[in-house]
Design brief:
Largest sheet: 8 strands, mixed
Number of strands: 24
Distance between the termini: 27 Å
Structural class: alpha+beta
Radius of gyration: 23 Å
Amino acid sequence: MTAESGTELRTLRSTEWDTWFDTLERAFGGAPKPPGTRALWQTLTEPERSLAAWAGDDCVGTAGAFSFGLSVPGGALVAAAGVTMVSVAATHRRRGLLTAMMRRQLDEVHGRGEPLAVLISSEPEIYGRFGYGMAAYQLSAVIDTHRVRLSLPDGTDTVRVRYADPVASLDACEAVYARRVPQRPGMLARRPGWERLAVVEADGSGHAGGIPLQCVLAERDGVTVGYARFRNRPEWDAAGPRGTVVLNDLEALDPAAHAALWKFLFDIDLTTWLSLPNRPADDAWQHLVSDIRRCQLRLRDALFVRVVDVPAALRARTYRTPVETVLQVEDPVCSWNGGRWRLAGGVDGAECARTGAAPELALSVRDLGCAYLGGVSLAALASAGRVRELRPGALARASAAFASDLAPWTPHAF
């Protein structure tokens, strides 16, 4: 397959990985990853799911995918391609390479029987034309821990928080994470090895700029019920210490363990700020703090969802309220998705099949991806003119049914 004369697009060969990854790094600014981190990415790469574009002996385009299970409303894990490592060399832009890679990748995802493809975009405007819709936000915050206090729920004092070695505690943390995945749409069930990304970062050994990663475990009766991994960045001015705690990740199995971990982070000596780069939009700590305004909240786009197989994807999730409707879906890239689909579902599951019945709602596959995890409402999309109601009342019923109790969220990039 060629995007232009003289360019070959083919599946990555394992012997070509270094050249392929060099091309990717150059496209993203040229800074090489430390040897330890690079070696881990090579281990995680799935060559059979990776594409390389070649102009003679030069690699001029890259695209890859990781195999994940994606949590959807109802708690099921749906096979999803985690699209990643997409780049086109600056010398070969606007020659059709990106379109060729994206279309071939979607064909291959469909051939593997995966209902969904997902990505976290470096440039959000790129992927809408390939049917990816923004489906989940991430919340960032910088909390003034000297002025903001926490209200703790009952039982917090039954939880012991202790320091643990970040590497030695990987298994315990991953066990907590795995239990959390089905509880929130958008979380990723990871293949073995992915847990190491939490501790192998900037220099390949868990240090970023000389600041080591730290880990604490929350325990009850000797059982791990939560964890937090963070870095403590010291800073001093004329008035004294003003350090910043930067949270990498935090998961807990119950409200008391969750609160105990936040209390620990708030109380670290010689620090004034707690920085949260990526948390769920509805993260529970927001209801524990005394002054939300001093937490400097910011929302941004996070996970983009591409529905690759409409009936399989709509059958895979549950619905908050009973729904029976006919969707008219437009999909110029994946022609097999286009047409009318009858969806009937509720809290126990759903059925979806082709139909000749009159449509009640009309939308693009991109907008179906936006609404799929329940974090973006069909009603909001309709207000923007992106979903059309063809039968009165259908929009309100479908919008309520697609909603999720918890905001979808993806805890890390891939």
